[in-house]
Every structure is written in C-alpha cells, then in structure tokens.
C-alpha cells in the first residue's frame, strides 16, 4: 500500500519512523506550499503541496497536520477516490466542513476514517448508544505546558507555576473542539462515538500535579455505566500531543493495509 502523509510535525514523524520497516510505503508528504524545498525526506518520498500532485497509485491519505490540514486537503483526497485517515477529529465540529467531507466521500466512493487518537473506550461508547445512552462526560487534564498556545491562556497565566488544578473550560464538545483545535480532538472523538457534540459534557483542566495527559470518560445509560481513564505519555517533540495519538494513526494505517481488519 502506498500512502501520503499530510504534515511533518511530531505525529507525522512518529508515524514515518514506525512505518519504516513495514510493508506500507510512504510515497509523499503533503506540506504547506511555503515549506516546499525545506523538508528533509528519505529517498523516493515526494514532497508536494496538493492532492492533485500525488501519483495515482497512492491509495490512502493520512492527516497528521491538525484541523488546517484536514480542511485544506480532506475533501480533495476523498473526492479523488482515496480513503483518508485523520487525527483532526475536532474539525468535524464544523458542520460546513463535515458536510463537505461527506459529499466528497460519496462522490469519490471513499471513506474518512477517524483515528482513535489519545483515548480508548470508544468502542464501548459506540455499542452503548444502540441503547439509551444517558450522559457522557469527558475530562481532559494536561500539565500546564500542554495548554500553552491554547484558549486556556485567556483565563490562566501559564507562565507562572500553578499551585492547584484549574478548570479553564466547561461546556459541550462542539465548543471545546472548535475553541481548542490542538487540544480537544479527544472531546470530539468521544462526542462522535457517543451522544454527539451538543450533549457531551466537557471539562478541560490544567493540572500542575500531572506529568501526563490524562483523559477520562464517564458514561451511563441502558447498558450500565463505565469510566475509562488513560494516563498518556506525550511525544518528545510536542508536549501537547499524546504518544498514543500517533500510535493510533500507525495502527489505522496498518489495519487498512491488511485484508482482514476492524
Ligand atoms: N485525535 C487526537 O487524539 C489528537 C489529535 N491531535 C491533532 O493532531 C495535530 C498534529 O499534532 P502534532 O503532530 O503533535 O502537531 P505539530 O504541531 O507537531 O505538527 C503539525 C504539522 O502540521 C503542519 N501543517 C499545519 N497545517 C498544514 C496544512 N494545511 N498542510 C500541510 N501541513 C500542515 C505543520 O506545519 C506541522 O508540521 C494537532 O494539531 C491536533 O489537532 C493531536 C493529539 C491528539
Ligand atoms: O494528545 C492528547 O493528549 C489530546 C489532544 O491533544 C487532543 O485531544 O487534541
């Protein structure tokens, strides 16, 4: 299988290393046009700025770039008949983009796959919503440095040492995903697997007492109840992003390359 990756940041570089010894070939990197010419890649990897420049034997496009990457290239990739795997789940909180991607996937007879990202337990939520799924609450807790550059800085001074955990967002998953494009993709993944963007309750916390990204899901409904908690190590190149998010992209690509999968 030949793939193209959108983005060359922390998640993309993890994925590139992980695939190096696999049967999946990285054929191209899609970067911002101003970065063309300044990206180091292995021999045989084409660096391009648009889907139209991909060779016809590239069957999958994998978005590791964040909301801007999915927004810019997602629909073109799907319309060209290529399946897309994305980590930028929060971008789907924008209804206009969502329907553009749906239309492109229908037109291209292709599919947008959502990587599970930094969280687990989404399979249980998906099954539970076949019954009445009453409430779903997601709590995202990161060390203060993990919230730098985000909307949290409008309510917290992250340059000084926090003395106790501070909630900087309480609301629904749609507002969280749109306000925190680099930090609340998990909120969107939980919403899409469960009760949707409006009904998913979200709390985002800067916690000086944690060194990991901690994600919790609390759900109850006809099925019973469950709590899922993960304490995720972050990627060395980006203190915002959990290593598991990058691993879930690798898992999604390898799954797509096999004749039998999930
Ligand atoms: N679903 C999940 O659980 C998670 C999702 N994410 C999402 O993944 C994104 C990437 O994470 P990292 O690799 O850690 O960030 P990063 O900042 O290290 O890398 C992002 C890369 O994408 C590139 N990029 C941005 N817009 C682009 C565009 N339009 N076309 C091509 N390249 C573009 C940037 O130049 C940069 O190289 C985050 O912004 C976040 O939205 C991150 C962590 C968890
Ligand atoms: O990587 C993480 O721990 C979660 C994250 O940034 C997101 O949900 O966008």
TrEMBL record:
Going by the record, the broad EC class of this enzyme is: oxidoreductase
- Oxidoreductase found in the keyword field: yes
Give the highest taxon in the source lineage: Bacteria
Is Methyltransferase set as a keyword in this record?
no
What keywords are annotated for this sequence in UniProt?
A: NAD, NADP, Oxidoreductase, Pyridine nucleotide biosynthesis
**InterPro entries in the record:** Asp/hSer_DH_NAD-bd (IPR005106), Asp_DH (IPR002811), Asp_DH_prok (IPR020626), L-Asp_DH (IPR011182), NAD(P)-bd_dom_sf (IPR036291)
Q: Show the GO MF annotations.
A: aspartate dehydrogenase [NAD(P)+] activity; NAD binding; NADP binding; oxidoreductase activity, acting on the CH-NH2 group of donors, NAD or NADP as acceptor
Where is each Aspartate/homoserine dehydrogenase NAD-binding domain found? 7-114
Q: Which residues bind NAD(+)?
A: 118, 185
Which residue numbers delimit the Aspartate dehydrogenase domain?
163-250
Annotated EC: 1.4.1.21
Active site positions, chain numbering: 215
Catalysis performed (reactions): L-aspartate + NAD(+) + H2O = oxaloacetate + NH4(+) + NADH + H(+); L-aspartate + NADP(+) + H2O = oxaloacetate + NH4(+) + NADPH + H(+)
Tell me the GO BP annotations in alphabetical order: NAD+ biosynthetic process
What is its pathway?
Answer: Cofactor biosynthesis; NAD(+) biosynthesis; iminoaspartate from L-aspartate (dehydrogenase route): step 1/1
Extra remark beyond the main annotation: The iminoaspartate product is unstable in aqueous solution and can decompose to oxaloacetate and ammonia.
Regarding protein family, the annotation reads:
Belongs to the L-aspartate dehydrogenase family.
Q: What does the UniProt record say this protein does?
A: Specifically catalyzes the NAD or NADP-dependent dehydrogenation of L-aspartate to iminoaspartate.
The protein in question is named: L-aspartate dehydrogenase
The scientific name of the source species is: Falsiruegeria litorea R37
């Amino acid at each position: 299988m030949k793939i193209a990756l959108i983005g060359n940041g922390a998640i993309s570089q993890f994925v590139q290393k992980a695939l190096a010894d696999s049967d999946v070939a990285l054929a191209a990197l899609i970067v911002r046009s101003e970065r063309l010419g300044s990206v180091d890649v292995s021999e045989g990897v084409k660096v391009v700025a648009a889907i139209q420049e991909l060779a016809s034997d590239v069957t999958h496009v994998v978005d590791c770039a964040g909301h801007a990457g999915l927004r810019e290239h997602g629909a073109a990739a799907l319309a060209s008949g290529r399946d897309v795997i994305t980590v930028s789940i929060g971008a789907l909180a924008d209804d206009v983009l969502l329907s553009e991607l749906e239309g492109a996937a229908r037109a291209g007879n292709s599919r947008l796959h959502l990587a599970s990202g930094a969280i687990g337990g989404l399979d249980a939520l998906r099954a539970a919503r076949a019954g009445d799924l009453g409430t779903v609450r997601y709590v995202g807790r990161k060390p203060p440095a993990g919230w730098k550059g985000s909307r949290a800085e409008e309510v917290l001074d992250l340059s000084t040492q926090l003395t106790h955990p501070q909630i900087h967002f309480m609301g629904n998953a749609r507002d969280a995903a749109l306000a925190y494009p680099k930090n609340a993709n998990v909120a969107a993944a939980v919403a899409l697997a469960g009760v949707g963007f409006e009904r998913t309750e979200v709390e985002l916390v800067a916690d000086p007492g944690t060194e990991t990204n901690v994600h919790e899901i609390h759900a109850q409904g006809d099925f019973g109840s469950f709590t899922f908690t993960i304490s995720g190590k972050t990627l060395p190149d980006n203190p915002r992003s959990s290593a598991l998010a990058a691993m879930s992209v690798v898992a999604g690509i390898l799954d797509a390359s096999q004749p039998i999968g999930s």
